[in-house]
Amino acid sequence: MGNAQNFGDKMAIALSSLCVIHCLATPLLVIILPSVGTLFMNNHEFFHEVILFFVLPVGLVALLAGYRHHRNRGVLTIGLIGLSLLLFTALFGHDTLGEAGEIVMTILASLIIAAAHLRNFRLSQVKNPIRGKL
User: Fold this and answer.
1) Within 13 Å of residue 87, how many CA atoms lie on the same side as its CB?
2) Which end of the chain has fewer CB atoms within 10 angstroms, the N or the C?
3) Contact, 81 vs 108, CB < 8 A?
4) What residues make up the domain containing 32?
5) Over its length of 134 residues, how does the chain's per-residue pLDDT go in tens digits?
6) CB neighbours of 49 closer than 8 A, spacing ≥ 6?
7) Is there a contact between 73 and 134 (Cβ–Cβ < 8 Å)?
8) Is position 130 within any domain?
9) How many CB atoms lie within 10 A of CB 46?
């Protein structure tokens, strides 16, 4: 397993977790500390753009590097579905799904991405993984 893939999977899991924390913490901050919450609300879209800027390339590199090692199409497919859902939600979610739908879809996509990277990481730890098994 390459260092880039190892680092990429761990980074992708961390970034996915950050998305979930952001989605859950921002509404709470607005309620608990309205002045601090307002800062987050003003930069809400900017936060999504910055996260996407890192999540997409890091996720793709790690998933593809892992796939080259373990050849598990299921892991690659699940990861790509999660990344696609996150990209769609970030670009069109608020307009098509509404605010609540955007939050739910972002959390779902982030969990899918984290699960795919965790599986990718574990399969890449095995010297001779069983090819094709999920």
Assistant:
1) 13
2) C
3) no
4) 3-125
5) 567 667 878 888 888 887 777 777 766 666 666 665 555 555 667 777 777 888 898 889 889 988 988 999 999 999 999 999 999 998 888 789 988 898 899 889 989 998 998 999 899 887 655 554 54
6) 90
7) no
8) no
9) 9
Amino acid at 47: F
Rounded CA gap, 40 and 64, in Å? 33
Could you tell me if residue 132 is inside a domain?
Answer: no
Give me the amino acid identity at 103.
I
Q: How many domains does the chain have?
A: 1
- The answer to the question of residue 85 being in a domain is yes
Residues contacting residue 122 through CB under 8 Å, at least 6 positions apart? none
Q: Could you say which DSSP state residue 129 is in? A: P
Q: Is the pTM of this model over 0.85?
A: no
CA–CA separation, 83 and 37 (whole Å): 27
